[in-house]
Predict the structure.
Amino acid sequence: MREGLIYKALSGFYYVDSEGESFQCRARGVFRKKGISPLVGDEVIFQIENETDGYITELKPRRNELKRPPVANIDQVLVVMSAKEPEFSKNLIDKFLVIVESYDIEPCLIVTKKDLLNAAQTAAIESQLSDYEAIGYRTYFVSNLEDQSALADILVDGINVLSGQSGVGKSSLINAVKPDSQLETGIISSALNRGKHTTRHVELIQVNGKYLADTPGFSALDIAHIDKYILKNCFPEFVAREDQCRYRECLHVNEPSCAVKAAVESGEVMQSRYDNYLQLMNEIETRKVRY
């Protein structure tokens, strides 16, 4: 028996990295009976059948997991947005950040395509990113074709996941960091203002001893797993002030003596963040019950 990490899943096969060696494995039938599917990022115990093949016999406990993209044991999610084509959207940024926070994973915000902006537009984006830095998020502003080697410094030890709107340059970022990966890059659809889906599967790429996952681009963000009490805890600047609210379970909407609403009025909390919070709250409260 050996231990390893699943770095790629494709067509029913799981590719496991074990002490620098790669093994093509299948999962034992017991996983299907239990309704469990191994994920990229899973730490596993496997049995070697020959020099290159084996069978996964056990999954080690997961620290966390995402369903879309299907990755486990994530240490950081890089929320990648673009400054232009598609247009910069604080609403989308906040929705991505909320989803990452809901899984208790550390997010980092990267904005691409800096080279497409003039000086005034660049300054406006930098000002907005400084607001996110004030909350505690790490942010980076990079060009489309240069300065992307900075991504190697952004990665943390362990598994880093790229996520974000289609067409923002996620595959280009990986190609810049690891040119031999040669991932397919898509063409922006101006009619839909989003990119064509180009990434076919999830795979962990090693970059200076750290793992980076390229994931299928998506623009549909599912918050079905988030209720209104989870939602309020996905805004760090709200959590930092909730002890000052009159009510212990304050939702920061209609309650009197709400410290969060007071902070919005004083400019300490971004108005756009609070507006997006109310929008997400309404989405949660009006969604249909699933049976």
The first strand starts at residue 2 and ends at 10. The chain has three domains: 2-61, 66-214, 228-286. DSSP finds nine helices and 15 strands in the chain. The domain at 228-286 is CATH 1.10.40.50 (Ribonucleotide Reductase Protein R1; domain 1).
